[in-house]
Design goal:
about 425 residues, wza like fold, 8 helices
């Protein structure tokens, strides 16, 4: 077989040049050039939202409430009341209520916690803040401490001359504090075990958790509800909590996303509370909620939503749906490294794309990225990134946002060169022979 002569090589190079010229002047430029895309260096970094890395956890004590020095009696409290000769009337000895607590008891059992013995008989505070006592009827004790309740009972019985002054024996203690039953709905993974998966593998089947929690007085807040149901939201959840008051209830047979939005708007218009409580924020900024917003009342719902933040890949990266980091920004170079599961660039850590035997493969490496981003009004913007320039210029390192489509491709000249080299199998050396 005759080797390629210099004349044959010249004809091949001429034909190759013709193909390159045709490719650069036809539809290939329209597909790969991104002529209508906005250069990444011209985009304001704050145009599409604030940076995650500038955020920090809030002071978590703001999710709780300050406990008063002494317990303030209110509706739902169970008191142990002892009035010598009156309550109980037929018992000479002082009655003692003995309560025990198991060592492995759940922190918030139904009905509250019982920690110590109490003297007297159990009396529950009515919804209107009163207690019914023998011979005197209803006595309002709402808003009083235990010491004040005991003194008021003395005054009532002395005023009606049932007991003599300075000879009364009255004792009031707390048996069980009032509790607020709430519902906690969490869409993050309840399983505490961690599993490492490839970045392109996205969990499609997800299970959340639900808990019915009884919170004692002065602990009926977001802080204690989170602590009981697993702590702070996981990496697959949004770092925020939603408090939906029990008064916000709109019955409906079907609840899709649009219906849910209408329900929340109706609650806000009606003056009912639906409060978003972020767990991270910018340093130095005021908290966007009030101290009373974290207090949970009977029937309230605490909701932890799942985080649905992904970016998509295409072109030479292949198709994938990849989760975004939950607490840090991801730029375009980091996104490509994450998509290829390699720090060696889009051709792979071991250069597998170049291992094609006699075929040159991708001699001209892909250096162009088109990012398709949806705007809030439903439109779409194309952003062009030059990877070679991004390695030197930080302005080219575009921050990837939720829903972005990242398409990696070669520039028109590089794509045409790779096509010619792969089509004709031109190696890295030329053989020159004389006629």
């Amino acid at each position: 077989m005759r080797p390629f002569t210099f004349a044959h090589r010249l004809r091949t190079v001429g034909f190759t040049t013709l193909l390159m010229t045709a490719a650069l002047t036809t539809g290939c430029r329209t597909i790969n050039s991104g002529a209508h895309a906005v250069p990444a260096a011209r985009i304001d970094p704050n145009l599409f939202g604030e940076s995650k890395e500038g955020q920090m956890p809030i002071v978590f004590t703001a999710l709780g409430q300050k406990k008063p020095p002494a317990h303030v009696v209110d509706a739902g409290d169970t008191l142990a009341v002892y009035i010598h000769g009156v309550l109980p009337a037929s018992v000479d000895d002082t009655p003692v209520l003995e309560q025990f607590q198991s060592l492995n008891q759940v922190y918030y059992p139904p009905g509250g916690t019982i920690l110590r013995p109490a003297t007297g008989l159990p009396v529950t505070v009515n919804p209107d803040g009163t207690v019914e006592l023998p011979l005197v009827g209803m006595v309002n004790v709402s808003g009083l401490t235990l010491v004040e309740v005991s003194e008021k009972i003395r005054e009532v019985y002395r005023g009606q001359e049932i007991i003599q002054a300075n000879r009364e024996r009255v004792s009031v203690s707390l048996v069980t504090p009032r509790v607020k039953r709430i519902v906690v709905l969490r869409q993050d993974t309840p399983n505490p075990s961690a599993a490492l998966t490839p970045p392109g593998v996205v969990e499609q089947i997800h299970r959340g958790s639900a808990s019915i929690v009884d919170l004692p007085a002065y602990e009926n807040d977001v802080l204690h509800a989170l602590a009981y149901t697993g702590g702070l939201p996981g990496t697959d959840a949004v770092e925020e909590a939603w408090v939906m008051k029990s008064t916000c209830f709109v019955p409906n047979d079907s609840m899709d996303s649009e219906t849910m939005k209408r329900v929340l708007e109706q609650c806000r218009e009606a003056g009912h509370k639906v409060t978003r409580i972020p767990l991270r924020g910018q340093a130095g900024c005021a908290l966007p909620f009030k101290p009373e917003d974290v207090i949970l009342e009977e029937g309230d719902v605490l909701f932890i939503p799942r985080r649905n933040e992904y970016f998509y890949t295409g072109g030479m990266l292949g198709g994938a749906k990849i989760p975004l980091p939950y607490n840090e920004d991801l730029d375009v170079i980091e996104a490509i490294a994450l998509a290829t599961n390699s720090v060696g660039g889009p051709l792979g850590q071991s250069g597998a794309a170049l291992q094609g035997g006699a075929s040159p493969g991708y001699v001209f490496k892909p250096t162009r990225v088109l990012v398709l981003r949806k705007m809030p009004d439903g439109s779409q913007v194309q952003i062009r990134v030059d990877l070679a320039r991004a390695m030197r210029d930080p302005k080219e390192r575009l921050i990837i946002r939720n829903g972005d489509l990242v398409v990696l491709s070669c520039k028109p000249a590089a794509a045409t060169g790779n096509m010619i080299l792969n089509t004709f199998g031109i190696g890295g050396s030329f053989i020159f022979t004389s006629q």
